[in-house]
Write a structure and sequence with these properties.
The chain is an alpha/beta fold and 191 residues long. Helices cover 23% and strands 26% of the residues. The termini are far apart.
């Protein structure tokens, strides 16, 4: 309670306040444990973590967005086969996260991976994948729903660099798009 005359807090219910302070300090000990002299410098110690310069090398993958090259990192996927494929192709172990499948449709970005067609730099040996948006766009999300793109046998495959080009080729009967429930956490890092 605050005394209106002095603008100071009165400790009228001292036992309750002491109990709250004890609770707060014990909670703080759980989240911010003290570092003893014996713990200093030991792996996993709070002090070592606070002073550590942790470096992680995450490979960057290329793709197209609206006709321009963009760069991405991948950290998680909802599909075990995708985890294995991305890990094998990049040399960086990504996480299996089946809960990504529960991501609502409106939160998902759209990524298009080519299964045939023009030879290129993508892991499958075909053209680079295409994504629908960059950070700052209203429909950007780092969580990409994978769509497989396959050229029809009678079509003349060519490199497509935007979602609009892919959809136009589908509307012309040149290719098929197969939606999947494979979600990859792959934020754009440069575009």
């Amino acid at each position: 309670m605050i005394d209106k005359k002095s603008n100071k807090m009165k400790l009228s219910n001292t036992p309750a306040i002491v109990a709250i302070l004890i609770l707060l300090s014990s909670t703080a000990m759980i989240f911010f444990p003290l570092v003893s002299e014996q713990q200093k410098g030991e792996p996993g110690s709070v002090e070592k973590l606070a002073k550590a310069n942790v470096s992680v090398d995450i490979p960057i993958s290329k793709g197209y967005i609206d006709g321009n090259i963009a760069y991405f990192i991948a950290t998680d996927s909802s599909d075990k086969h995708a985890v294995s494929s991305i890990t094998n192709n990049t040399g960086f172990p990504i996480n299996y996260s089946p809960l990504l499948n529960d991501t609502p449709q409106w939160i998902r970005g759209q990524g298009y991976v080519f299964l045939n067609g023009v030879q290129g730099e993508a892991p499958g040996g075909f053209q680079l994948p295409v994504a629908n948006a960059v950070p700052g766009d209203e429909d950007y999300s780092p969580l990409w729903q994978t769509n497989f793109v396959k050229w029809n046998e009678n079509a003349t495959a060519r490199e497509l660099k935007s979602v609009e080009e892919i959809v136009a080729a589908q509307n012309n009967g040149e290719l098929n798009i197969t939606e999947t429930n494979i979600i990859v956490n792959s934020p754009a890092v440069k575009w």
